[in-house]
Write a structure and sequence with these properties.
mainly alpha, 2 domains, 3-stranded antiparallel sheet, two-stranded antiparallel sheet, 17 helices
């Protein structure tokens, strides 16, 4: 397959990936326009809304100004002044990364070097710029430098991950960079490499276990509170089209909701507006948006709340428990309290930083007034998580030591 054809196919797939992302919100909005609105509302309004949603979903901030009539109708405090939308529905970014990974792998399998990935990223970036420019409106304007860079960078990350094998065998600058990194790692002592490897694996396992448990907990809460969720749907009275849009919006925010449950398990909780708090020690809310998913929100059940705090502790304990044998094999005869303690600290730092970054990505400004603060406090969540992981990982590491000693006796 020649390079020109590879480049064209990669460009087409990048365009399809972008179209899928925009279409997720554009299709239901277009159906709503066709079914529930007369010709007095033009379709381009719904297109711009879809473009804005897609851009925000990739971390692009949106500057909003409500029409005075609309601001008075919705009666939102602060709605008459310009405000920022910065909370990203993370499903869009996740989808873009996955589609980028798929394209990167296909490029590697086709035998291409950089032609396919470069063509794909360039095409994605070009159409992203067009979407950003077409989305500009006096009432809703994306921050342009973020709009032209963030979505393309996220897609490029996915392509790079998918084509990492190709990058490693390219023989060019990428390979030289890789060789320098490997050379740096080779220059480290075996003990340091063992600690770094165990810390990274243990931290990733810990974070993955907490996120997985949070996803399961959210699913259980939705099923258990399904009647309350349906009641909110009925109260909204959005009709078939409105309910479809509301459901699609909640699905796009589902990764955010999972990460909010993570912060709840950590103990710091999350906010649904300035001055509000949802945490294991209690729920303090003012007026909140009528989102059906909020019907699954945990209540002031302290017993259940403190039981939930065991999730991050158990995750770090299990990660350290299973990491210890591999760590001891890698350390060989150099096993010591210092190296094991550094590994415990490394696991806590890796997992805590990852949880903190994800907490930061899951929150932001969702509207005017008190809605400028929605989601977890990233610094507090990451810091408390690291402390919990440190204690639990130390227990897991040394509990395994005690079991091994007892078996030897």
């Amino acid at each position: 397959m020649n390079r020109t054809l590879i480049a064209l196919l990669a460009a087409l797939e990048a365009f399809i990936a972008l179209a899928i992302g925009v279409g997720i919100s554009l299709v239901p909005l277009s159906l709503m326009w066709a079914v529930q609105f007369d010709s007095g509302v033009s379709w381009d309004v719904f297109y711009r809304a879809s473009a804005d949603i897609w851009l925000v979903g990739h971390g692009v901030d949106l500057k909003m100004t409500l029409d005075p009539v609309l601001a008075a109708a919705v009666n939102l405090p602060g709605g008459d002044k310009p405000f920022l939308i910065s909370i990203a529905p993370l499903s869009f970014s996740l989808l873009t990364i996955l589609l980028g990974v798929r394209l990167g792998r296909k490029s590697f399998e086709s035998g291409a070097r950089f032609v396919g990935p470069l063509s794909a990223v360039a095409t994605f970036g070009f159409f992203t710029i067009l979407i950003a420019l077409s989305a500009v409106h006096v009432n809703a304007t994306p921050v342009m430098w973020m709009a032209v860079s963030f979505p393309t960078a996220i897609f490029a990350l996915g392509v790079f991950i998918g084509a990492r094998g190709e990058v490693g065998h390219s023989g060019g600058r990428a390979e030289r960079v890789q060789q320098k990194v490997v050379g740096w790692a080779t220059g480290l002592s075996s003990q340091v490499k063992a600690v770094l490897s165990a810390s990274l694996r243990g931290g990733l396992i810990t974070a993955a276990l907490v996120i997985g448990a949070s996803a399961v907990a959210l699913s259980i809460l939705i099923i258990a509170n399904f009647a309350s969720i349906l009641g909110i749907y009925e109260g909204v009275q959005g009709g078939g089209g409105g309910s479809l849009i509301l459901t699609a919006a909640q699905l796009m925010f589902m990764p955010n909701f999972v990460l909010w449950v993570v912060s709840w398990f950590i103990g710091t909780g999350f906010a649904l507006g300035t001055g509000s708090s949802v945490s294991p020690v209690g729920t303090d809310l003012g007026l909140v948006p009528a989102l059906p998913i909020l019907g699954a929100m945990p209540t002031n059940d302290l017993a259940f709340g403190f039981l939930g705090l065991l999730v991050p502790l158990l995750a770090a304990f299990l990660a350290a428990w299973f990491i210890r044998p591999a760590l001891l094999r890698a350390l060989g005869t150099e096993v010591s309290f210092r190296w094991i303690s550094l590994t415990v600290l490394g696991i806590a730092l890796v997992a805590g930083i990852l949880i903190g970054v994800l907490a930061w990505a899951s929150g932001g400004a969702a509207g005017p007034g008190r809605l400028a603060e929605v989601g977890p406090n990233a610094l507090r969540t990451g810091g408390i998580a690291a402390l919990e992981f440190l204690i639990a990982a130390a227990l897991g590491m040394y509990a395994r030591s005690g079991v091994s000693t007892a078996k030897q006796k």
